[in-house]
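Technical note accompanying the year-one report. For the benefit of new consortium partners, we illustrate the data format agreed upon in the data management plan: each record pairs a sequence with a structure-token string. No post-processing was applied to the example shown here.
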Amino acid sequence: MIREKLILETINMIKLYNLDIRTVTLALSLRDCIADDVNTVCKKIHDKIIKYSKNLVEYADELENDYSIPIINKRIAITPISIIGESCQNPDYIKIAQTLDKTAEEVGVNFIGGFSALVEKGFTKGDELLIESIPKALSTTERLCASVNLASSKAGINMDAVLKMAEIIKQTADLTKDGIGAAKLVCFCNSASDNPFMAGAYCGYGEPECALNVGVSGPGVVRAAIESMPQNADMSELSNRIKQIAYKITATGELIGRKLAKKLDIPFGVIDLSLAPTPAQGDSVAGIFQAMGLEHAGAHGTTAALAMLNDAVKKGGIMASSHVGGLSGAFIPVSEDSGMIEAASNGYITFDKLEAMTSVCSVGLDMIAIPGDTPITTIAGIIADEMAIGMINKKTTAVRLIPVAGKTVGDKVVYGGLMGEAPIMAVNTLSSEKFVKRGGRIPAPIHSLNN
């Protein structure tokens, strides 16, 4: 049982260390919106989203005021739209995208995710049409987010889809100012169908009619807890302290989530206990590494520190909730973490080091700006490497790259808000072209045969 008095223990965490509920995300199935005519589909989608989410923002704001706990984002995640649109005799994914965006604006949410396709084993006609429409869809909307699952530990890696998505990322970036459209597009291996975080949130095929999923955060709280410990505290003591903090953060998030779900009269889904950083000072995952004793993120030992952090957060959080899901762990988005921005700007952390860290973090290569003239085949190689890490390790990995037109290494791009600013990072200039153009599917690893 969650005790409300735990809220009292979080007061200093909120005031001093940026503890917040990063997102409350309404996951909504649109499977009953399928129809032969795209106009009918759009009307059904609009009406259903309004029905379930019309009070989401209002009720979340009420709880934020009642408990004085910031709820930063209110979001919606829907059934992958490739499934919904392909039933139409006159499929028009741009029309659906714009309907979703306008409806999201109408109900007041920050983002709506689920302009998505799952193609780890191949394409349907709907998948192909949706993927082709992504650049225009994201360049003509504000709140829409897209994702494509390209690989899984059971199916392997769809290399045809990898190369196609590299092209789509480039097109999307080129159509939007400073490539911002690409920041709303993510490629996955082993995507989580109950993930409340954007840009990868969607409501999976096996999810219920609707549910409320919550994402909590608090890297500043973890850093402060570590800094309060003796300098000679060993790794086991650090891990235990992180677990204790993760327990309190998770308990707070679940309490708010269950109360909001009750007000909305829908089931509570999962709590994603990820440490999601922001550009604000003191709200950095990279800052936790420094508190642990590293000079800065990128120093040798960073991957080990991240592995311990990720594991301790999950162990502590899972004791506070019966339903932990989503991604859960620690995010390392370059542009959204003040410490990671500093490390990348000063050359402390490189692309290769970031790739190594993704083997133990909760997502992958996230919010990384690269030169606008990076070849599509190089982008495909980057995606393929990250998909391989996820496939072999049976974990979720992701790629959110932003090729910024007219920018090169040494430049930076400023987005503001939670998206922060991104130094343009160098990528390996050796060619991947012949490899990625082979196409086909990289087979699933031997450990996939475990049924």
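Partners are asked to follow this layout when depositing records. The CA atoms of residues 195 and 386 lie 19 Å apart.
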